[in-house]
Specification:
The complex is a heterodimer of chains A (139) and B (147).
Chain A lengths: L13 E7 L4 H11 L9 H6 L9 H15 L5 E8 L9 E13 L2 E11 L5 E11 L1
Antiparallel strand pairs in A: 1-3, 2-5, 3-4, 4-5
Chain B lengths: L15 E4 L2 H11 L9 H6 L13 H7 L3 H7 L7 E10 L8 E12 L4 E10 L5 E11 L3
Antiparallel strand pairs in B: 1-3, 2-5, 3-4, 4-5
Classes of the chains: A alpha+beta (139), B alpha+beta (147).
Chain lengths: 139, 147
Amino acid sequence: MQKIKFNDYNEDQEIPSLTVGPVKHMDLVRYAGASGDFNPIHTDPEFAKNVGLPGTIAHGMYVMAILGRMCSNWAHPAQIKNYNVKFKGMTMPGDKIVCTGKIKKKKEEDGQKLLIVSLQAANDAGEVKVAGELTVHCE
Amino acid sequence: MSELSKEIVGQKLPPFKFDVERGKVAEFCTAIGETNPVYTNIEEAKKAGYDDTPIPLTFQTTFTFWGYTEFWNDLGKMGIDIQKLLHMKEEYTYHKPIYPGTTVTCSLEVTDVKTGKMNMVTFGGSFSDKDGNPFITSQMAIVIRPD
């Protein structure tokens, strides 16, 4: 893996995107098992409807994990200092997860060269489900 | 169930340990469709400058759910209606890599509660080595949907 170089990027420049899906019910069952988050709103359609949801919804952390794949496909994971997200909307089975990111800010702080990247995961209709930020430390 | 109150700020969940196993990391990679070999192939990881394969960016979610299965019950005891809970924010700060074979000491504490139209609870997390030096620190905020 190559490390990202500070001088190779400009503000507003996009990083390589990643699209997955459509999300299947089985993907959520598998993620429940792998992560250990067995909240039935993610795996049991009847339960989800009984608590007022339209059906099962993806774990927010599943979407954060997919978005994280995009981040470390681009930057060397050892360069990633901070990764944060806000969950804006629900991802349902049938939705695609379209991950994109662009350089929001380049800055030098305490002698460190940092790229701040704004991130989002949307469905294929462009509705943003997760928005976040990544801090990448460059040599 | 008790009502959610600001009095739970400062409340800590019992600390717990999580053994990072290679197979568990591979299972997690499969579940999220991770194909970057740095996470599963030791040779690739070494070429990338690691001693072994690092965990993916969000693998630590397993620490709590598998390492501390009382998590949901504890939230209930704090007055959080888990049937109406939605995840609002998650943040990780990475300090050093975690490799398979590592035992991680995990601690979670309520750091903020906001009550009102929407009730919100924030947890701070620390995932550390045996000497107490953090691998990762985290923040998680949840909201409880109103009736």
